[in-house]
């Protein structure tokens, strides 16, 4: 009864502090964090057992509980804490300097390097890790694990307008410094398809018009030669054939000259105005005139066939000229068809409103192309109502740089789709770096929320127990100093010595909960005893409390350090790092912070109060 009467309150508040620490995890959104709330349930059950079943065992077994020792008595004063107490209580400035020498180097080293690389959790000899390294070597880690932009719609997504905006979005993402390339339906090889861009299409159209102008020049030259030959034939047959025949040949030559003038006008018009549609209509009239000339030449050749031998030979040449006119007519037909197609293309581009905002025009024949259909099948889903883009990063997708790049990509995509047909579609992000980006946001928010709940809960508990608001502040400050110093120690070991990219993302959270919840227990042991001894005075009460509770606290720290130290041989990186943080933090708190830092601060505060008085 005396044990529970004197130590029961300490036991209760000690268990309550740990319970608050782990119960606060229940307010986290992250399921992995929430799972640790089971520890709080265990603490509640343990407190129930300590106040029911354990007293029963103590009453039944009595002194046999201490077997094999036959002597039961109080524990001896702790000499180590006696030495540390004299230093911290009576020479507080020197004590704080010693604490600074021990803790500040690790605080300076600590850079809050956090790693989301789950691959590090597995042994490098694992098949999956080796396979990833091979892909990384061959293609680059950014290409092996891209960020996926997934666009889902309720309607058909493979339309010229949507694809033009998809390409514009791809170009916008690809311009970002953090992005290596974008692969998708309009970029199957990760590069721009020049044929999709209106500037390249117009350049090709301009080249076609230049070829058309060159073609009209060649046609003019050919018709000039035919006209000259017709006049020559007309002169040769003038003495041997009828005047009617020679007259018709001259008229044909004059007709060809007129057509030449018309071709020259068409060529000049194409050069100056590039009015393709009007030029095609004019070529249709020229084509009709050439057909009439060809028919006239064939008729003239027939009339000359019965004349003298010389004229008969000329009639053969006249037939060849008619064939030449037919060939030129076919050339004009091809030229007219080409100009008509160019005019149709220009009209379609002008009618496509999306060209102005994207700079991209998707021809109808491209969507019907068999090779492009294979690309469509590769990057679309849900019957053509959704598609995906692969964004390859320059940075390692597991790194903080990769996570930051993914966050910028998400922001850029959200901003770009505003005012486009993509605005009303569902846009999501997938991939390792996207997952880690969300993980960082959730875990950071949970960490901040949990820390606030734990700090407030512990402050209230300590304030009620110690009936003071200054002592809880000093205790919590000491716990935080121990926590960040232990993180610095872990970062020194795993980052600077072992070469990992950072501490696993779960380490700061679980390290904080475990170290703060357990460390506050030791503070309660010491300061609850101090409440009993402070009638001797602040310094004398602290000194006696330290020598009496030193062994209890050091023993508890060693036992718990051994428990958490068992995590280190596990081979799981996050468990090794959590074990390192908790073990180093507990030993640091039990041997440095609690015996040197906290009493020194309280002793300095007491000295200032006495000076004011």
How would you describe this protein?
The chain is mainly alpha-helical and 613 residues long. It contains 22 helices and 7 strands. It has helices at residues 2-23, 31-35, 38-50, 53-61, 79-90, 92-109, 127-139, 141-144, 160-174, 198-237, 243-272, 276-304, 309-351, 354-358, 364-367, 370-379, 400-416, 432-466, 470-497, 507-533, 538-565, 573-612, and strands at 114-115, 147-152, 179-183, 380-381, 386-393, 426-430, 503-504. The strands form 2 sheets. Strands 2, 3, 4, 5 and 6 form a 5-stranded antiparallel beta sheet that branches. The chain has a two-stranded parallel ribbon with strand order 1-7.
Oligomer: single chain
For the residues shown, what is the average pLDDT? 76
- Strand share of the residues? under 5%
Total strand count, please?
7
Series of H and E elements: HHHHHHEHHEHEHHHHHHHEEHEHHEHHH
Summarize the main sheet. 5 strands, antiparallel
> How far apart are the first and last residues' alpha carbons, in Å?
42 Å
Q: Sum up the overall morphology in one term.
A: rod-shaped
Low-confidence stretches: 240-244, 609-613
Helicity, as a percent range:
over 70%
Q: Count of helical segments?
A: 22
Radius of gyration: 46 Å
Structural class by SSE content: mainly alpha
Please describe the topology of this protein.
Layout: H1 2-23, H2 31-35, H3 38-50, H4 53-61, H5 79-90, H6 92-109, E1 114-115, H7 127-139, H8 141-144, E2 147-152, H9 160-174, E3 179-183, H10 198-237, H11 243-272, H12 276-304, H13 309-351, H14 354-358, H15 364-367, H16 370-379, E4 380-381, E5 386-393, H17 400-416, E6 426-430, H18 432-466, H19 470-497, E7 503-504, H20 507-533, H21 538-565, H22 573-612
Parallel strand pairs: 1-7
Antiparallel strand pairs: 2-5, 2-6, 3-5, 4-5
Helix pairs in contact: 1-3, 1-18, 1-20, 5-6, 5-21, 5-22, 6-19, 6-22, 10-11, 10-13, 11-12, 12-13, 17-18, 18-19, 18-20, 19-20, 19-22, 20-21, 20-22, 21-22
